[in-house]
Amino acid sequence: MVVSDFDAIVIGAGIQGSYAAYHLSKTSKALLIDQFALPHSRGSSHGQSRIIRKAYSKACYAHMMTECYQQWKQLEAEGNIELFRETGLLVLGEEVDPTFQNMKKTLIDNKVPMATLTSADFSKSFPAVKLPKGVSAILDKTAGILQADRALKTVQDLFRRFGGTIRDGEKVVEIQPGYWVTVTTTLGIYRAKSLVITAGPWTNELLNLVGLQLPLKTRRIIVCYWKEKVPGTYGISKGFPCFIRINSGPTLHDFYGLPSNEYPGLVKVCHHDGNNADPDERDINFHLSSQDVNLLSDFLSKEFPGLDPRPAVIEYCMYTNTPDHDFILDHHPDHGNIIIGAGFSGHGFKFAPVVGKVLSELCFGNKPSYDLSPFKINRFWLKSSL
Fold it and tell me: Fewest CB within 10 angstroms: 159, 170, 182, 353, which?
């Protein structure tokens, strides 16, 4: 079998891997490999929409978002396509909740256009939402919706335009570390001086080939759409924003939602959690988690009474979570030319332009554009030894 040489190889063509390949292709000969034929819905990057926001409880993420917005805009220009629509984002939570307070603080510290809504303001602006007693609201005015499937295809198309090579439908079966990293798939053998692994739920399966396992949990997430009792009540055309509902009670169930747009008259509202699942068995004997649906139905009945509390459409995807829900952006501890981007924990899509840039910088030994200490692998080993 003929061996093909590249400057860098990326395994995993989700949004993180595709964006890393996109950045790499601007200065080097790059290869992007995925085990499934593209496009596919097996991982975490498919679907019509994702929320993009600057409201974050941790400063490290808030700092990245300014450039993320700039790079998404650049991608729109390069691809001559619209990918972002500004809607604003409501953050709902108890005033004393630390997450709520930190989100508010990062917006203020970063001078993000925002508003703090009184109960009267809220009732006037959003009469179809019932704000429980003790729950406060802030509005991130810069937030909105990314067209996810369209964005992923645009990044991959530009990667090809810049000279990149995609090999889809090829499963990686062997990785041999060294000065040249050799990657063997079911259909070919490829070598490169650097390897980036961005394989989502399959990350540990690949890392097992290079003697490493990370504390990752793969979760199957239910994505639900709910019918408006009166069409347009929560519609994007009516100016209804995205929202995050922070719950600080004993159940700690956080919810998020997007205005009706993808499906006419249906609002996307989801529980930001799911059940442990093997990604290769996600579609086998799938049974709807009544617990998740019941949590959502109960929440909507109380706070979004204009929605039918029975889901109209149910889809699902995978999260790959770290214990602290922070990303992993780091070198392999034993092989410096193997780079890992993993553990995006259900909130990574919006960061892909900057994550891809940082992973490409790590590939070539350049100083990263951001402080990556919150994303180092050794944070898990250090904690486990305490």
Answer: 182
